[in-house]
Specification:
With about 140 residues, this protein is an all-alpha fold. The chain is built from nine helices and no strands. The protein has one domain.
């Protein structure tokens, strides 16, 4: 999912995040990333404006100007996509979508998607997935 949404490999993204390598020129804008995430997950674009902390009006301006995606936007999209990839690996694509949207008692009765709009929330979901992968929860 990461490569499909951002158009680069995980290794290229990590290098970019760490400042070691410049990404090849890209025509992806912030709006493009949001559209790709929305298409891939069947979630509304408005949800992803929360994930990457960009207002709808700013997103529209970015999309029309084709402003290249920033490191912050790419990082948030990367974190989100990594979590979705993990859930899809564990449950399959269709079941993953339902699992992400369902209220979960191990997350205080809230859905994983509710947490995934912030970095702290994504870390909480990631820790929960770690526990599931280790067999701590059913």
């Amino acid at each position: 999912m990461v490569e499909a949404v951002l158009g680069v490999t995980r290794v290229e993204l990590v290098d970019w995040f760490e400042g070691g390598v410049k990404l090849p020129p890209t025509t992806l804008s912030t709006a493009d990333v949001i559209v790709r995430l929305a298409q891939r997950t069947n979630l509304p674009k408005s949800y992803f404006s929360k994930v990457i902390k960009v207002s709808q009006s700013t997103m529209s301006r970015h999309g029309s100007a084709k402003t290249p995606v920033s490191v912050d936007v790419a990082d948030a999209a990367f974190q989100f996509a990594e979590l979705v990839d993990r859930v899809e690996h564990m449950r399959g694509q269709v079941a993953a979508a339902a699992w992400l949207a369902r209220d979960n008692p191990h997350l205080g009765g809230r859905s994983p998607l509710e947490f995934m709009t912030t970095e702290t929330g994504r870390r909480r979901v990631s820790r929960y997935l770690d526990s599931l992968e280790e067999g701590a929860y059913g």
